[in-house]
Amino acid sequence: MDMKVAKKLGLKERYSLMTRDLAWDTTYQPMDKVFPQTTYEGIKIHDWDKWEDPFRLTMDAYWKYQAEKERKLYAILDGFNQNNGHLSVTDARYINVLKLFLGSTPPLELMAARGFSMMGRQMNGAGPRVACQMQAVDEYRHFQTQIHSISNYNKYYNGMDEFAHQQSRMWYLSDGKSFFDDAITAGPFEFMVAIGFAFEYVLTNILFVPFISGAAYNGDMAAMTVGFSAQSDEARHMTLGLECIKFMLEQDPDNLPIVQRWIDKWTWRGTRKLASVGMMMDYMLPKRIMSFKEAWEMYVEENGGALFKDLARYGITIPKCFGQTIEEKEHVTHQSWIGFYMKPQATPFHTWIPTPDEMDWLSEKYPNTFDKYYRPVLEFFDAQEKAGNRFDNKTAPMNCQVCVSTMKFNEPGDPMEMCFRESIYQGEKFHTCSDHCKEIFDNEPEKYVQTFISSHQVLQGNCEPDGTDVNAADFKPGQNMLDYWKLDKRALGDFNGSEDQKNFAAWREQATKN
Amino acid sequence: MAIDLRTVSITPLRQTFGHLARRMGADKPASRYMEATMDLQPVENYHYRPTWEPEFDIFDQTRTKITMKDWYALKDPRQYYYGAWTLARGKMQEIAEGDFDLVDELGLAAAYPAAGKEEALKVFLPLRHVAWGSNLNKAYVSSYGYGIAISQAACYASMDQLGAAQYVSRLGLAFNDLDALAAAKTAWLEGAEWQELRRYVEDLMVEKDWYEVLIAQDFALEGLLYPLIYERYNEKLNAAYSPVFSMLTRFQREWFGETSKWMDSVLKATAADNAENKAQLAGWIKHWRERALKALQPVAVLAFGAEADAILDELVQNLNARAAKAGITL
């Protein structure tokens, strides 16, 4: 008689049979040697079986869904490339968004892939391990599809060709690198809070929605399709991050202060990292979706606020930095764009002064700050540029020892004053950009003294092209930065007059006129 | 805006990214595999040392005794980046689904002779735990291996083994037998036939050299286990009863055929890099081959009785031949 036991299993039991029932407690090797990393951070886990699987996806179903998504995605990419889709973007300034994105995002997705692989090896509960492994392989998908979607642009425009080389060398990519290096060198639970929760849950919308919508608004079907296709993966990643927080908090009351400190730290670190996304929204998209300020209100203040309200029952309070981020949302994007505009010899993307129409849009979106603080600066630069006196800041920047941002943000409550903080550690002075970064430094100075800050390293001869003799009598540090970065001169400086601008105009002419 | 493709021919400024052009020695179009793989892992200017192993950098070549002039020589002959891998597995799962459906529809499992069923499930079902261990050990290789060529292939193989563990579990369910799964777990934990194999898998969970884990898990153990069970044992059951088990383990058989091509190619590139590698690989293979043989011997007896040793001998010869073909003298 056919008993059909298989069909009687509920989804939960069946998934359990397909994952944690496969696991066993090792006896030939002690469990704490097999999983040596899950105790030293002070997080107490009493029962790994209490982990609630945030999603239940067996590998056969995973392959089925993902294969369908990949088939569609690559068909669209191929079509876009064959049809010279790059000429259908709103205007050539948009392509600079892709340059910023290619340098900053796929390398971080790669770190997420490697980091989640480590979690998928180190977590000693079978449930979280499988969920982390699945996120790891998804992250491979994300950095690869991002590179594939931008690869065709690289054939026609300058500044994208050396992203792999630049990921560990470009000064302005240090903030993202330090963010992920910090997470991956932390213990597994902190990594989960940093990437799984703060980044993938609290801040992911403000990263993803503006970029994907920006691509959609500006005619970039390649990047838009990659983004849309990644969204269902992201939904899984968000549930994993949240489950991890809840699991830690439910396991032991002693975990609360540790988790709270991590949430405070990583929400702030993420916020600093996102300043460049905001700059993209307010200054770089020819057709704008909404202002960074509006996006921050919607995705972080409202959604994030609701999330923290939900977590209040565990004793979690809203991240300490929240108040400051609300104040800063009216400033950071302007400060960042002005910061990049002032360094025309040091980035592989172009900058420009917004058109009068665009300035008016900024005035409308930032009624409290733009006309008062930033329009005058931009108009002054514009006048200087037109008079043949383009501002070019050639000095090395001062950087925050924690987030590695260049010091450019203002003192809370005083937009006319730049914010500096300092700590003394083992007789040496270390600078930070804010109270929150200072607190992070002071909590773990032995970690943050290691930060690789290129404006310091260059003086020590550590930022030179391969083969440079730093002991030569005539050696001068920092003379060959463009070579060290492999920075194409055509990619530098102003958009106006650039090769990209000329080529795009000529090609579009060729493509649309007889 | 619509653009008329036929009238538009634009000469690109370049064909590929700088790191790929340097690697290929010319500016020419690169494959999607190359774009998704080569030179992407950071190699310098790390900000912090891991708090969990401060003696190493985040990615560190000295995590293995193997040395390579170019870690991307360990490339995948299947050219699996995520998209290619998941499409290949998507196809395999579709076929497997068809097989499971057919067995169910025709009542083939229920019609399987009781004696044969018991005999077979005893051998197959504990293998879900072996696959689970393999998933974990491959995750180690993908976590700490150097370069994206090896890390991504190991990541995909690790997920493949999770899939294999789940297919073995479904095999048990296809025979409507939750009890058999429970019995298999007890056998895995306590049964004398399985203890050396469990010890082998667990010992790898604390081995630190990721390349040694790769050799022990993927080359030595799976190089003997997969042909032993998914080829030879299936053939025996096919001849004695019906090909149901061959159908329901098709994924594992095809996976091994495909994945061993990758393994052999990685071995060959590693051995070709320098003489020390060659000697190191030979040493590891000999050591883990002997241990794998010892671990699999009781399982082979369970499956083949008196013929076990002869079959294992033959499989060892095949494994040695694979090593020889990769340029490794044992």
Brief digest:
The complex is a heterodimer of chains A (514) and B (330). With 514 residues, chain A is mainly alpha-helical.
Taking the sheet with the most strands of chain B, its summary is: none
Strand order of the largest sheet of chain A: 1-2
3D shape of chain B: globular
> In percent, how much strand structure appears in the residues of chain B?
under 5%
Distance between the termini of chain A: 76 Å
Q: What does it look like?
A:
- The complex is a heterodimer of chains A (514) and B (330).
- Chain A is mainly α and 514 residues long.
- Chain A is 59% helix and 3% strand.
- Chain A has 24 helices and four strands.
- In chain A, strand 1 and strand 2 (414-418) form a beta hairpin.
- In chain A, helix 6 runs antiparallel to helix 7 and helix 6 packs across helix 10.
- The longest helix of chain A has 31 residues, at 221-251.
- Residues 1-6 of chain A have low confidence and may be disordered.
- Chain B is built from 13 helices and no strands.
- Chain B has helices at residues 18-24, 32-37, 82-105, 114-124, 127-144, 148-174, 178-190, 195-204, 210-240, 244-248, 250-273, 275-304, 308-325.
- The chains are: A mainly alpha (514), B mainly alpha (330).
- At the A-B interface, helix 4, helix 6, helix 7, helix 8 and helix 9 of A face helix 2, helix 3, helix 5, helix 6 and helix 7 of B.
